[in-house]
Amino acid sequence: MTLSLSLTVNGDRHEVHLEDARPTLLDVLRERLGLVGTKKGCDRGQCGACTVLVDGRRINSCLTLAMSVDGAEITTIEGVARNGAMHPVQAAFIDNDAFQCGYCTPGQIMSAIGLIAEGEAGGDPERIREGMSGNLCRCAAYPGITEAVRDATE
Ligand code: FES
């Protein structure tokens, strides 16, 4: 039996047909829709590299069955720039040198956008670090990441 899944991703509507209910949102985004900006790090909810927004809330897409978000609005890193201009969080990451290898950066940026929208962290570095604690950076660019999120919050 084929399952039908409807997703709006970065404003574009997609109908995806799945053989079964097992594919994760991460695999559908990367392998079916070609949106490879969302990264697969651990594939088990530990690193945050796969963070996307589902109806405005940040989630680990590797832990989310695609069928569970049928009908949802998804935002990935490919969808945050507008009219050729970077999202303020993207610009803040560049201004603050908030990456080294860059592999975790899409997830960091999506998590930061979600955190700022939640309005919980304000500009407080400690709360930003706590709010971003689900996103690991093997290069340990954490000071720059915290500064970038703080700048983007102001
Ligand atoms: Fe999803 Fe690591 S790939 S949390």
Automatic annotation (TrEMBL):
Domain named 2Fe-2S ferredoxin-type: which ranges?
Answer: 3-80
Which InterPro entries does the entry mention?
2Fe-2S-bd, 2Fe-2S-bd_dom_sf, 2Fe-2S_ferredoxin-like_sf, 2Fe-2S_ferredoxin-type, 2Fe2S_fd_BS, Aldehyde_Oxdr_Iron-Sulfur, Beta-grasp_dom_sf
Q: Which residues form a coiled coil?
A: none
> Its domain of life?
Bacteria
Stored SUPFAM superfamilies:
2Fe-2S ferredoxin-like, CO dehydrogenase ISP C-domain like
Question: What does the UniProt keyword field contain?
Answer: 2Fe-2S, Iron, Iron-sulfur, Metal-binding, Oxidoreductase
What GO MF terms are annotated? 2 iron, 2 sulfur cluster binding; metal ion binding; oxidoreductase activity, acting on the aldehyde or oxo group of donors
Name of the protein in its database record:
(2Fe-2S)-binding protein
Q: Which organism is it from?
A: Acuticoccus mangrovi
